[in-house]
Design brief:
single chain, about 350 residues, Isopropylmalate Dehydrogenase, 2 domains, 10-stranded mixed sheet, 12 helices, about 40% helix, binds nicotinamide-adenine-dinucleotide, binds 3-isopropylmalic acid, binds manganese (II) ion
Length: about 350
């Protein structure tokens, strides 16, 4: 089979982890007799520097003409004060929208060899196997109007959370279908005690649930779900949630299973699938060759599974990851005694507004 990919290494650790994932795909292609073709294109900060656009037309065209897209990460402190349409992140959001990938699957699995790497006790994380199904093209990320208006000192900023029934229904179906190939439990996470969007979300998810009577459906408020995810992560199977809640809960799930660097993702449901680790450009460790490449490698496994239907090859990559960890190999993030990113405190001078 021809595996024609566009690779978008991006910024920070993005190129480091993408290179490793491509090496794994090269090996898979060799061993299983596939032909791998990888076209590298700039995105994010790298594209801002080379083309003054975080998603150049040429990059998008290449993605749309590919069988799948493998992305590293975008963003970094040097771009943080750029206007919003020129931020690296806006290139990624545009790419997701152009590809039409509304369903973002973010599995968080506690590998047996990593039980002691979690900040939680081993008996709490043992057996954790959560699949976060995050709606990726709606909610507060894309709702209109959005603006910042007024004069400094008196400005007002507006973002809009918006969901339509059809958008909720299509992502709910993805979650229920996936639950059927797992432990048949869907926990829908919302904030229905406060938000209209969430009340609609809960109603539509419940209706869709009636068509999946073999799948157990539960609802949780997002604050409570955040607590349960660290208190009893093994209780969760599929977590179905909207865009922003899914973003937040998936980083948390990364910490639960030992490191954010372990999480891969698949964004599907559109013209071409997009595969990227859940983590960002990790500017604090970029360029040191110490980034954990497993999130990117597990994303490559999902690429084989979802875009090319190569289940055996995907499972082969996943069992290789488990074997490498079982053999004791570790990147630095898995061997630490202090967990989580350091808080970047403002220095007294910089902090004077
Ligand atoms: P981050 O995910 O880049 O890093 C958070 C912490 O996790 C850091 O301490 C980092 O060192 C660590 N970490 C992340 N990936 C790792 C890996 N593979 N191996 C080892 N440690 C790893 O989040 P941040 O620092 O909040 O964001 C940095 C930049 O990345 C921002 O510009 C943000 O917008 C962007 N970002 C991009 C994506 C993406 O491209 N999909 C995702 C999240 C954040
Ligand atoms: C992620 C990231 C992105 C998001 C940013 C970089 C736009 O945090 O993929 O989790 O919020 O979706
Ligand atoms: Mn995120």
């Amino acid at each position: 089979m021809l595996l024609n990919l566009t690779a978008l290494p991006g910024d920070g650790v993005g190129p480091e982890v993408t290179d490793e994932a491509v090496r794994v795909l090269e090996t898979i292609a060799d061993v299983f007799g596939h032909q791998l073709s990888v076209t590298r294109k700039p995105i994010g900060g790298a594209a801002l520097i080379s083309a003054k656009d975080p998603l150049p037309a040429d990059t998008l065209q290449s993605c749309l003409a590919s069988g799948a897209v493998l992305l590293g990460a975008v963003g970094g402190p040097s771009f943080d004060n750029f206007p919003s349409h020129l931020r690296p992140e806006s290139g990624l959001l545009r790419l997701r929208r152009e590809l039409g990938v509304f369903a973002n699957l973010r599995p968080a699995l506690c590998f047996a060899a990593l039980e002691d790497c979690s900040p939680l006790r081993a008996e709490v994380v043992r057996g954790t196997d959560v699949l976060i199904v995050r709606e990726l093209l709606g909610g507060i990320y894309f709702g209109e109007p959005r603006s910042t208006q007024g004069i400094p000192g008196n400005r007002v900023a507006i973002d809009t959370m918006r969901y339509g029934e059809a958008e909720i229904e299509r992502i709910a179906r993805v979650a229920f279908e996936l639950a059927r190939s797992r432990r048949r439990k869907v926990t829908s996470v919302d904030k229905a005690n406060v938000l209209d969007c969430s009340r609609l979300w809960r109603e539509v998810v419940t209706q869709v649930g009636h068509q999946y009577s073999d799948v157990k459906l539960g609802h949780m408020y997002v604050d409570s779900a955040a607590m349960a995810l660290v208190a009893r992560p093994v209780d969760f199977d599929v977590v179905l949630t909207e865009n922003m809640f899914g973003d937040i809960l998936s980083d948390q799930a990364g910490a639960v299973v030992g490191s954010l660097g372990m999480l891969g993702s698949a964004s599907i449901g559109g013209a071409v699938g997009l595969y990227e680790p859940v983590h960002g450009s990790a500017p604090d460790i970029a360029g040191q060759g110490i980034a954990n490449p497993l999130g990117a490698i597990l994303s490559a496994a999902m690429l084989l599974r979802y875009s090319f239907k190569l289940e055996t090859e995907a499972a082969c990559v996943e069992s290789a990851v488990a074997a490498v960890l079982a053999s004791g190999s570790r990147t630095k993030d898995l061997g630490r005694s202090i967990w989580g990113p350091p808080i970047r405190w403002c220095s007294p001078k910089a902090g004077a507004l």
